[in-house]
Amino acid sequence: MNSLTVLMVSGDSAVFDPKSTVSERVRSYAKHTGRLDVIIPTATFLSREEKTIHVHSAYHRLKVLRFWRLVTVGERLPRPDIITAQDPFFLGLAAWFIARHHHTPLEIQVHTDVLDPVFRTWSVGNRARVLLARLLLPQAQSVRVVSERIANSLVHSGILSRTQISVLPIPPMEHKPSAESIRSLRARFSPHDCLVLTVSRLAPEKRVDLMLEALALIYHRGFSFQFIIVGDGEERRSLERCAQRLGIFDRVHFVGHVLDPSPYYHVAHVYLSLSVYEGYGLSLVEAARAKLPVISTDVGIAPLVGASLVAPNSALIAELIIRKDLPPTSLPADFIQSEDEYMQAVFHVWSRCAHGAVSPRRKTSYLWLIVKYVISGGTATIVNLGLIFVFTDFFQMWYVLSAALAYAGAFVISFTLQKFWTFQNTSVEKIHSQFAVYVGLGIFNMVLNAGLIYLIVESTGIHYLLAQIGIGIFIACWSFFFYRVLFRKTTS
After folding, report:
1. How many CB atoms lie within 10 A of CB 201?
2. Top CATH class, 5-171+339-354
């Protein structure tokens, strides 16, 4: 048993299911570590312990507050040798905060080509993710990517040097479906139909609707098929309506999420993948291992496995589907196909990162203290604005009263974050007196807040929300110095 301790920040709640493939992979990780902690953001409290594996849920009904739960749970855990985050976005940011707290090396995993122009322009959210990734990736001691395509993108952009990057394609779990499971699956479908398969999260960027349009074209030309969709997501209902509108609903099978999709690759005749962007494409690897012909857009690993590449055009896709001479796919000769080999390679990256030159934990810098203060105050501000909006617009309260009540609610959250996280004052010895002083300051600020908002709104006619933002910034600035004194034992 190796003594390396690892903290993993993940977004896949399937790890709480001991029978899932995600749990199997976590067990494989644990074979190479002395202790493995996994933190997952969830809507409800979940927990799982299995030998050296400790899975924790950062739970909260509000998504916006799960970030803080991730950070606080991670900071309370024993100091790990290395922290690894499964993306350079929300999870990566939380892992960076935890790494700063423990002064531990950070590894960030990248599964998507975040610098692909298509990815960046796909949505406003993606633009924000690209910006966050650009800021976070240089802060990591190690960046693990799943393809040379992503590595080259990061290097050519100048964000990272080649020495900071490890390229480790993720092999599919070593499932060998039984002959009985394959026979049972084949019995569900007509042997005279072409079985078209996709295994995908049902999201807009996967373009399953384009698959349905292409299949509708060949259906109306008399081509007999059945379309098997393995996976679930927010687009399922709209895709079901799309299949009905196109007249092919009885030919489409929405299987939903399954723990082991491997038998489906052995019964299908062709695999479809029309993603707008893809850094890797684990389902393409699974299809290639089953020697299944693949029709795909030019994304991820598709060119390397020998997929038939196609433009996102329903007529062109339809022509490829009805062809009977599509070449089978296969994995590249240098592809790591063994799960154990992959885990050993990951552990080697972790060991190299964990035993690198990392200086002793230093006192929190003044700039870092301001950053944490702003983020904690920003969270309280979001709560404040949300409450004042609800009280004023939904409960029809007078905006001055709304401002006072909203401020009172937000200030409770502010105290918790500022004391225990921003200023690292974990002592509860003087918490009652600190809270009393904090309440006094809060009452003063609440009166000041209400008075200023009344004065500004009545005298200038500015919208109350805009006025509240300005007042909040002013109060936050002078309160920072007050909190520095109140919680000075931690920061002196």
Report:
1. 15
2. alpha beta
